[in-house]
Amino acid sequence: MAKACVLQSTLLPAYSPLHKLRNQNFTISFPPLPVSRCRPGIHCSVSAGETTTRSMEEAPEISWGCEIDSLENATSLQNWLSDSGLPPQKMAIDRVDIGERGLVASQNLRKGEKLLFVPPSLVISADSEWTNPEAGEVMKRYDVPDWPLLATYLISEASLQKSSRWFNYISALPRQPYSLLYWTRTELDMYLEASQIRERAIERITNVVGTFEDLRSRIFSKHPHLFPKEVFNDETFKWSFGILFSRLVRLPSMDGRFALVPWADMLNHNCEVETFLDYDKSSKGVVFTTDRPYQPGEQVFISYGNKSNGELLLSYGFVPREGTNPSDSVELALSLRKNDKCYKEKLDALKKHGLSTPQCFPVRITGWPMELMAYAYLVVSPPDMRNNFEEMAKAASNKTSTKNDLKYPEIEEDALQFILDSCETSISKYSRFLKESGSMDLDITSPKQLNRKAFLKQLAVDLSTSERRILYRAQYILRRRLRDIRSGELKALRLFSGLRNFFKFVIDREECFSHKAEYEGDTLHVSFVVIKSDSQWHFNEDGVDLVIHGPTGEQIHDFREQISAKHDFVVQKKGVYRFCFTNKSPYHETIDFDVQLGHFAYYDQHAKDEHFTPLMEQISKLEEALYNIQFEQHWLEAQTDRQAIVNENMSKRAVHKALFESFALIGASLLQVYLLRRLFERKLGMSRV
Ligand SMILES: C[S@@+](CC[C@H](N)C(=O)[O-])C[C@H]1O[C@@H](n2cnc3c(N)ncnc32)[C@H](O)[C@@H]1O
């Protein structure tokens, strides 16, 4: 069942539909637009519809565009753009590690520099002139909204090959854009089973198919000479929408117009970059301002917007490396309980505010929106709170200004437990998928298919891992809050118990240590500093390796060639964690190692006192903070030790050098005296003769 999702939350940027429908007959509604691993080329065309299960070999190929990693057409595009008025550039299209083709600095670029300057004449928007003006006229007559209009425009221009002024641009576009539009229903079901992105992809595919059907029945079928079936069909629409989803940008300074900007659309995305494309009124061109310097040969990035990994996969077909996307979020589905005595009343309240059951809410690594909490309050509220249903549903729909004050202390624990249960149900789906993905039958019928399936599976594994990570974090926070609430009164003083282990050791080649974690959800803090080597003439600047393994031998984290490092992680499985150090230098090294486990002890429900609970919460938080400070303090002490030894070695070396130089000077002086004496003695002998 498709689930409605509230994206307009206190945590996510406001949901801004790409276009407002000008004609209500069109039912399409598309979501907003714009360091990962390498991918094998997917040079096949695959059907996405539920009923269309054509194999890749059978699917018709698009006869324009190129393989995404091809540079030949990109070079022609570059030449054509220069001839058409693109000013000289400080970047060039090249093959890159991230994103296959991208723009690479051809000279030093300063931070804060404006780049690109693509003139409006080289931008494709809903107002662009049609090479076939008659077709353009018909589309305008039907008042087609921007997205379907641009999709049709792109196909029309592509089919006219060299007669279109956009020939060079279209030839450099990927023949098959990376996008979930190209995943079959079976692939979506199999690989994205745990993620809500599956629903979003199905919805999007349905919208694209529906839009094409709408255009076909209302316009194309009535003007077959302008829109022949061989050119305007579901396959070509899938291509053009794939291009729009992965390349269309919104230009705020051009009245929020949506545009395809040749050249600028060769820039790849980086989650850490904070610069966006926009129209610059002073230079009259599309630009972006660098937020960091680049050296010649370095790939230049922009941001496609603050999108979650799922949204990036949906529109652009890639998933950033785990933990690198600060805008990452996962959609958590919450549902009313079927056996709820007030099910109907609650559902009516939800419907009144445009919500339903199940309903998705975004959860981030930093927390969840108030809307989600409001929905949870509604789900768990007993019949005697029916007067509050309306207020709760309103707050869950983000339509209330007082939502931040929404508090029902009497049902807070139930609401948090309900969110925790939903989180855990979702986590178990991800865990099942990730476990099964290891032995997933890739149904190999050809190497090409194997390549594709392995690639899609990897994307799904990456997405599931990053989404599950956020849920684990939410689970940890929820458990802690519940423990705080349940512990009550003075119990909170003993809530936090830490297990600490810190010591210095000398390592020759390899040393392993283990630490037992008794509870899931606790946080393990690890730090080490390489303090000294056994030779005062050598000081290790290459560092050591540390690999952390979980209870079943899985690798949790690794540091390579580090002098000092710190890492925190949430214990997902209780058991013994192993920390293995490797020293690759020929010297013995002394390492200061600190591992600390923070645990909130679980207490059963005790009498609660509303006045005391917040105080106890604060005390337990302070206790944890104190513990963390001790950890930081030890780390700093270790760093100071290292620095003291570095300084001591340096001064010893300086003294040795000075002594050596003095001895050398004395030696040279004595030699000089000796030689002079010999010379004078000889001269004296000669004069006597
Ligand atoms: C606007 S285009 C950028 C140019 C594109 N690389 C090309 O060669 O045509 C967006 C597409 O680039 C790729 N891309 C962009 N950023 C990426 C990243 N960080 N990692 C992997 N692929 C990326 C994706 O295939 C995406 O659909």
TrEMBL record:
PROSITE patterns: GOLD, SET
Occurrences of domain SET (ranges): 89-305
Molecular function GO terms recorded: protein-lysine N-methyltransferase activity
Ranges of residues in domain GOLD: 510-597
Organism superkingdom: Eukaryota
Record-linked Pfam families: EMP24_GP25L, Rubis-subs-bind, SET
CDD domains found in the cross-reference section: SET_RBCMT
BP terms from Gene Ontology: methylation
Xref: InterPro entries: GOLD_dom, Rubisco_LSMT_subst-bd, Rubisco_LSMT_subst-bd_sf, SET_dom, SET_dom_sf, SET_RBCMT, SETD3_SETD6_MTase
Sorted UniProt keywords: Methyltransferase, S-adenosyl-L-methionine, Transferase
Annotated protein name in UniProt: SET domain-containing protein
Source organism per UniProt: Arabidopsis arenosa (Sand rock-cress)
The organism's taxonomic lineage, starting at the top: Eukaryota, Viridiplantae, Streptophyta, Embryophyta, Tracheophyta
